[in-house]
Input
Amino acid sequence: MNKTLKNILVVVIALLVMLAAQLNWVDGIGEEYTEQGFKRALVAYGIARGLNAVISVAQGTEVAIEPVGVGVTFTPGQILDPINDLVERFSWVVMASGASLGVQRILLQMTAWQWFSALVSVSLMIALFIYFKPEKLSPAIRSGFYKLALVLVIIRFTVPMIAIVNEGIYRVFLQPQYESSKQMLEQATENLDELNQADQESQSLASEQTFMQRLETLYQSATNSMEIQGKLDAFKRKAMEISEYALNMIVVFVVQTLLFPLLFLWLAIKLIKRVMSF
Output
């Protein structure tokens, strides 16, 4: 590459970087993607709290298998005890993810601040001047200005690029898992709520029966093991579904809002250290 072409390339790159810093179009995309992630976190948190509510109701479900309730009483809802703990942790992960996205949003606003953008542009203009007039300053001072300009550029664009790359990773690799898990958790919540309502209705009907009718109903319930087993199986199926899809959602939020942002931040710090070591 001849010197003229190299000089033109340097000027074009510097001007494009200054333009991007001043127009904030990269920041706009980053903010939009961060908001989308924040909304996903809010939706997931709502699902977690809804699950927690219906599971708490289900845990109080009782099935008597002896006449007049004397004898053994099953509590099928207790099958959901470990799942309730998992849902609690799921809600914590979502809260941490929302906090991470909130921090990213604040950092986006800070790096997009007009005075910081102006500082980046000024540092690049000074670096360009030094590049074309190297004899004006000593090599050590020239190197210091170049390093300062590069570090400011890295800081200026690191946070929006993290948001953009994160959203790209989400759409390519994580979105199908998020959408399917969200749909199945919502469906599991509805189904579990229906089981709760059916149990409450049966208890309400039982309370309205006469003593002889109640004896007959309880006797039939005690002798009908298939009905009891069916209810236990229904709770077990819901427990397996909730645990599977809650874990899938945890993976999505950990990867997108915790793992990759920390990885990219670490890479940015390593890059800054590398620039400063030149």
Observations:
- Residues 139-208 form the longest helix (70 residues).
- Confidence is low (pLDDT under 50) at residues 64-72, 203-209.
- The two ends are 23 Å apart (CA to CA).
